[in-house]
Design a protein that fits this description.
The chain is built from 10 helices and 8 strands. α2 links the parallel β2 and β3. The protein has an 8-stranded parallel beta barrel, surrounded by 7 helices. It has one domain: TIM Barrel, CATH 3.20.20. The chain starts with 12 loop residues before the first strand and ends with a helix. By secondary structure, the protein is an alpha/beta fold. It binds zinc ion (ZN). Zinc ion (ZN) binds next to β6.
Length: 278
């Protein structure tokens, strides 16, 4: 088994702002900085109350690295007008990514229950293909994030790392790669092989971590902190690192349970879980 070295510092820890949903961007930046965290993935809605350029200055002042902007995508729609609107929205997201200094835009690719998953995937392919020139022009990479199959009806028709790798291969641009999120992919018997394949293609752009609670109460907002569920986070981290990934470990936890709690104490629990269960 490829078990990686124990994590002994926070230099590669990144937090998705949505993990601390009650906080705005200023608060996230201040608290992450105070906790010794240097990586942040910014959710787009937080930029409604602070201009991306102002956000960039704030992040720089706190010595924070923006790992990614989250999220673009939602390319699939039976209605042509909605597909065009999605392209406009993604172009706006790319512009924000450039302004805030994010090197990567994460794509939740979309699905429409009014059509087959194959049709949705064709539209996703077409949508990403259309975005590539704009992404290259601003120097922002695109990461296809496969979602768990329970979201196949309306969030993503890309539900395995193989499907994401296949699409990356077909598109054939150095700008397009994948985000491996443990919550979505931990169960897949082909995961280890597909992580290797992605590494060989040099398209493993991001690594998102949390845990899967077998008794989850809600399929969206009841993710676990590392160590609370059944994912062997350290094992899969070993696979990702053996495949050549040396980027941040991004904690991305959506949890009504944790959002109701004191966020500073929760952040300490995250750091502790990161050091001991990852
Ligand atoms: Zn993710």
């Amino acid at each position: 088994m490829d078990l990686p070295n124990q994590i002994n510092d926070l230099s590669r820890l990144c937090i998705h702002t949505q993990t601390n949903r009650p906080w705005n961007l200023k608060r996230c930046v201040a608290e992450y900085h105070r906790a010794g965290i240097r990586g942040i993935s910014v959710w787009r809605h937080l930029l409604e109350e602070i201009h991306p350029r102002e956000a960039r200055a704030l992040l720089k002042d706190h010595d924070m690295t923006v790992v990614s902007l989250v999220r673009g995508g939602f390319f699939a729609a039976a209605d042509r007008g909605r597909r065009k609107e999605a392209i406009r929205e993604n172009l706006a997201a790319l512009e924000e990514a450039e302004q805030i200094g994010a090197p990567l835009l994460v794509l939740v690719c979309g699905a429409d229950p009014e059509q087959t998953p194959e049709q949705s995937r064709e539209q996703i392919h077409e949508g990403i293909h259309q975005l590539v020139p704009a992404a290259e022009a601003v120097g922002v990479r695109l990461a296809i994030e496969p979602l768990h199959p329970m979201y196949a009806a309306n969030r993503s028709a890309i539900v395995t790392l193989k499907q994401a790798n296949d699409m990356v291969e077909t598109i054939g641009s150095e700008t397009v790669g994948v985000a491996v999120d443990l919550f979505h992919l931990w169960w897949d018997p082909a995961l280890h092989d597909e992580i290797r394949r992605c590494g060989t293609m040099e398209r493993l752009f991001a690594f998102h971590i949390c845990d899967w609670k077998p008794d989850m109460k809600d399929m969206l907002n009841d993710r676990g902190l590392m160590g609370e569920g059944c994912i062997n986070v350290a094992q899969i981290r070993g696979w990702v690192e053996s495949a050549g990934f040396s980027g941040f470990h991004e904690v991305e936890i959506f949890s009504e349970r944790y959002w109701r709690q004191d966020q500073v104490a929760y952040l300490h629990a995250i750091v502790n879980a990161y050091m001991n269960q990852t």
